[in-house]
Amino acid sequence: MLDQQQDAAGGVHDARSGAALYRRVMPGGGYVEVELDGHTTDAASGDAIAPHHGRIIMERRADPGRRYGHRAPVVAELSGDDRDELMSDLFRLACDNAALARSLMRLQTLQSRAH
After folding, report:
1. How far, in Å, CA of 13 to CA of 45, rounded?
2. What DSSP state is assigned to residue 7?
3. DSSP one-letter string for 42-86
4. What pLDDT score was predicted for residue 14?
5. Residue 105: pLDDT above 70?
6. How many CB atoms lie within 10 A of CB 108?
7. Local structure of residue 81 (DSSP, 8 states)
8. What is the domain range of residue 101?
9. Does residue 34 carry a pLDDT above 50?
């Protein structure tokens, strides 16, 4: 089972800790990107210590010059033990413009309440 998390406090991606697995240009400019962090395992037993963790980043600025110094917002984060299921859910969301717009509006609402 996957757990979806929204970063209500910051809502921006600080460091590129995950591997970018997918990126596409958004209609009107900008891009959406899927990242997946590595799976942490116990060296002795080989058992998983932490689940897989992935995120979807959405940059709406069409002009790369306007992106300088700004971090793209993380519109969704998912965690799960099954890498394939996690990747499927991340790709499905990253390909759905309406779902991305809803996630971005939800993030903006949470940020405006925090201020």
Report:
1. 32
2. -
3. -TTT--BSS-EEEEEEEE--SSHHHHTT-PPBEEEEEEES-HHHH
4. 41
5. yes
6. 13
7. S
8. 3-114
9. yes
Q: Which two tokens stand for residue 53?
A: 């963790």
Average pLDDT on 85-111 reads 89
Closest by CA position to 107, among listed 79, 86, 76: 76
Q: With cut-offs at 50, 70 and 90, classify the pLDDT of residue 2.
A: very low
pTM to 2 decimal places: 0.68
Give residue 82's Cα distance to chain centre. Answer: 17
Report the alpha-carbon distance of residue 60 to residue 71 in Å, rounded: 11
Residue 14, judged by CB atoms within 10 A of its CB (0-12, 13-18, 19+), counts as: exposed
Pick 37 or 4 by higher pLDDT: 37
- Taking the C-alpha atoms of residue 32 and residue 9, their distance in angstroms, rounded to an integer, is 21
Is the Cβ–Cβ distance between 15 and 72 less than 8 Å? no
Q: Tokens 């990747």 label which residue?
A: 87
Of 6, 2, 3, the C-alpha closest to 74 is: 6
Query: Which of 114 and 74 is assigned the larger pLDDT?
Result: 74
DSSP letter at 41 equals: B
Counting the structural domains of the chain, the total is 1
